[in-house]
Amino acid sequence: MKFHHHFRTFHNKAFINNQWVNALSQKTFPVMNPATSEPIGCVPDMNVDDTQHAIKAAQDAFQIWKHTTGKERSFYLRNWYNYLSCNKESLAQIILQECGKPIKESEAEIRYGNSFVEFFSNEARRIHGEILSSPVPDKKIFVEKQPIGVVALITPWNFPYALVARKASAALAAGCTCVVKPAEDTPFSALTLAEMTQAAGFPDGVFNVVTSGRENTPKVGSLMCTSPLVAGISFTGSTNVGKILYKQCSSGIKRLGLELGGDAPFIVYASADVDKAVKGAMSSKFRSCGQTCVASNRFFIHCSKYDEFCGKLLEQVSQLKIGDLQDRATNIGPLINQAQYDKVSTLVQDAVSKGARVLTGGTGTPLLYQPTVLADVTPDMQIYKKEVFGPVVNLLRFKDEEESVCMANDTLTGLAGYIFSEDVAQIFRVTKMLEVGMCGVNEGAISMAEIPFGGVKESGIGREGSHYGIDDYTYMKYICIGSL
Ligand code: ADP
């Protein structure tokens, strides 16, 4: 196979200007396998000096990359995609080990990530301008799209591969060059993506990866937000860090894309097909062990369907297989780290102390938290207000549509929402009223490269995926041809 590539599974160096490098300080930090709590390897603990070096390399590369045609960039991206898809089984093992995802989910993440590289390899050729109608005969109005420059991509641990692929493929398609800062828990997927850009023949400095431990990260992030050589930041992660970056970017009026936390409502109406709703609940809640920003976080069930939904959900939850990540039947792996485990466990304890009933689960052994279903959840419980990021279903009842929409919108965030109804008029009414950026109707799995992923309210700014995903990485330039 032409694109088969023997790559290093766990790189111990970062990737700057097409070279594998140590931190200037020679410092490293260890990365753990959450399933075994054993270290998998060490990566460079880079600081601002290393990051300056990477930004400079990306800036130099931009001077060349910005002059490539969409067709040429499409060719590079397609080549990258060929390497990535040809090596998908080995790539999945990296996610499995650094992120603790069961093998089937690790493979699904590789397919998901690769679908963006493929999509944007096509999109690169279609970043068109426009000629607008002029109000006067002696002027012509052109609008052109140009790449913004060097972009810094800061990514989280829950999709260590796909989110780097999603951001970088859009940025590269648009003609930007990038410096990636992967999450400290999961740097290896990003480093292997870098190795594959090398295999695919990308020019020096177009794609760079800077790894930093927890202590250096805020300084590195701050440099990325303030360096005059960086044109924009794309960040996926917590709302708190998103707000820090938004502030920091204000000093240089940087372009900013933010994909932050969610608090997805999941509403089952009286007309719903409960089997569809249970299927949707299982996929939107238990994928990645509940550690996704589009995970259903609050379940509102119409009182006429509550018992049927609970019964059928419990039956499905009891069939989830926990444990051995290499087993293709496994659905549930460990949470990413002790801090996440403690957070989930504390939220459940708080709910139980305030009257929630545990229908199943409610406990675990670090870092494996049992799939849990809580009934009788009320708005005064912490678990109602916080993004759980774990395998916990919180059930609440409602009586009418207005109440359901009111409760669903009773949050500062607005990423995804899910509704289950067989009433067409209700589907149109409710999807219009929900304050979310994405809405699944009778569907719990809504992410694809073809869709504009993103949120409203405190869930973020901008969209990733689809042709809209190019917008964060391009400036519009208006050109007026006069004296005609
Ligand atoms: P999570 O809660 O999902 O771990 P974070 O927002 O803490 O989310 O992390 C997402 C990414 O943001 C990671 O790559 C992390 O290293 C990075 N990060 C954390 N703090 C900062 C900061 N102050 N500046 C820039 N990046 C940061």
Automatic annotation (TrEMBL):
GO cellular component, one term: mitochondrion
EC number: 1.2.1.24
InterPro entries with a match to the protein in the record: Ald_DH/histidinol_DH (IPR016161), Ald_DH_C (IPR016163), Ald_DH_CS_CYS (IPR016160), Ald_DH_N (IPR016162), Aldehyde_DH_dom (IPR015590), Aldehyde_DH_Superfamily (IPR050740)
Enzyme class: oxidoreductase
One record GO biological process: gamma-aminobutyric acid catabolic process
The organism's place on the tree of life at top rank: Eukaryota
Coiled coil feature spans: none
PANTHER family noted in UniProt: SUCCINATE-SEMIALDEHYDE DEHYDROGENASE, MITOCHONDRIAL
Protein name, entry field: Succinate-semialdehyde dehydrogenase, mitochondrial
